[in-house]
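Bit of a strange request maybe. I'm writing a small parser for structure token strings and I need a real example to test against, not something I typed by hand. Could someone generate the tokens for this chain?
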Amino acid sequence: MEFGFYELPALKYQYNALVPNISEEQLKIHHTKHHQAYVDNTNNALKKWDTAKKEGTDLDLKAFLKDFSFNLGGHALHTLFWDNLASPGKGGEGPRGALADAINRDFGTLDRFKKMFSQAASSTEGSGWAAPTFSKQTGRLGLMQLEKHNANLVPEAPILLVLDVWEHAYYIDYKNLRGKFVEAFWGIVNWDAVSARFERAK
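Reply from user aminoacidic:
Good idea to test on real output. This should exercise your parser:
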């Protein structure tokens, strides 16, 4: 069997589709430079693995696994991120159906959910992500702050929505004003994609 490698996913929209919330320049650099780098670094790690296996040499596993999980986590989270974005006005006014019911049950209201999620995103220490999750064991929605790409993951809690709050996600458009970027994010959420993820998680 011939093993493959990871690839940068194509976006489902044009680079100017998220203007004015995210500029064409910002989105293009984020996708083609930053995300591509995580894909390349993940594949380079796999090549090191293949070479070590072929030559019978040892890897520094502590360094290898840390590097591999960081870059593969970056690839996976960015892939989710692109999927939960939509052109302004095309993502729907908000969640509907079962997801809306779950948000109202577990957060009180949609506004309270958005406020708490925004606080989680804005206060993520250093570089990282904010994400609501769903636990099959408890049936509850929750929130996660992910440091970098691979720290503070909650086991058995699929991610429903992600917001990238690394500076590379917003520095061209918003400079150091992360809160402004978080606020703009709500105008481009693809609620249909989030609802579909929730249905799969259930």
